Amino acid sequence: MKSQMVGKIGLVGPGAVGGYYGGLLALSGQDIHFHFRSSYDSVQENGLWLVHHGEGGRREPVDGLHAHSSTESIGVCDWVIVASKATANSTLPDLIRPLVGDHTRLLTLQNGMGNAENLGDAFGHDRTILAGLCFTCINRTSPHVIESLLPGYVQFGELGQTISEEGRSIVNAFQSAGVRVRESESLDEALWRKLCWNIPFNGLAIAGGGITTDLILADPILTQRARDLMLEVQAGAKAHNIEIEDSFLDRQFELTEPMGPYKPSSLIDFLDDKPVEIDAIWGEALRRGEAKGVEMPELKKLDQQLIEAVG
User: Fold this and answer.
1) Residue 311: CB partners within 8 Å, gap ≥ 6?
2) CA pair distance 80, 83, nearest whole angstrom
3) Phi, psi (rounded to 5 degrees) for 195
């Protein structure tokens, strides 16, 4: 499906999420340029492949892939999509500066809170900055193969305002590429809602000893702990004037059950001895909740367990 062109797109951090959505954008005809690091040689040799398990395991090559080993070779873009781990945020401005001109717009697909604000601090809050929260199950199973287990959807919000006409252009590009999209009037609301799943399931997968989501659901103690963590996230959101209904919390368990033995992204990073986004996911939510006087003992306990687990 051909989509309305949004200009030149640069994508940094094409791991599971970035590689999958970037691949779909490329297949829809967008002019998107990928910055690969450790996987550059593998992608150059083998191409980039998407596997759609919702379509019987259909494998699809990303034809005409624009792969780069440096952001300098990409140059200034109309849009920059950031899909790198939030643990790299301290070095992110220097990495993407060659991509950013006066009129460049930014989209972060990162986990956790504070990522859009970090981009605003680095490149100015007067430019269009969006965040896309990815409610999906996607794994990179080799340097050049990305598998989608559950398509899910991406919920978009814009920093400091409802989604503008400029911001909606990238949302429409995702939709035209076959991605289910939703728009949020409040970026903060979208972030708190995403944490209702990320905080318990990413965290307990590590704290439970490196276990998959099906084992969390099979353990009554861990299931109750997941529920308690969700309730604390719900309370933290409410303190920020964001209402998350109980049915949304129930839905997180309903969505997780058919995933089977799923490894959340934080667990994969932990098992691979890669940095885990503890501060952006658990630490920032804890700080924001406690700053409003919300008691979050389960989140505080989990945050400490994760800090100790990663050493």
Assistant:
1) none
2) 10
3) -70, -20
pLDDT recorded at residue 2 = 53
**Whole-number percent of the chain with pLDDT over 90:** 91
Residue 44 burial (C-beta neighbours within 10 Å; 0-12, 13-18, 19+): middle
3-state secondary structure of 104: strand
- Asked if pLDDT for residue 308 goes beyond 50, the answer is yes
* CB-based burial, 141-172: b 16+ in 10 Å, e otherwise: eebbbbbbbebbebbbbbbeeebeebbbbbbe
Mean local confidence (pLDDT), 97-104: 98
The string of pLDDT tens digits covering residues 56-98 is 889 999 999 999 999 999 999 999 999 999 999 999 999 999 9
Q: Rounded to 10 degrees, what is the CA torsion of 96, 138, 156, 19?
A: 30
Within 8 A by CB and 6+ apart from 7, the residues are 31, 77, 78, 79
Please tell me the distance from the alpha carbon of residue 269 to that of residue 25, in angstroms, as a whole number: 25
Catalytic residues: 194
Q: What is the pLDDT of residue 311?
A: 79
User: Which amino acid, one-letter code, is at 260?
Assistant: G
Distance separating alpha carbons of residues 48 and 37, to the nearest angstrom: 14
If you search the block for the tokens 């598998």, which residue do you land on? 147
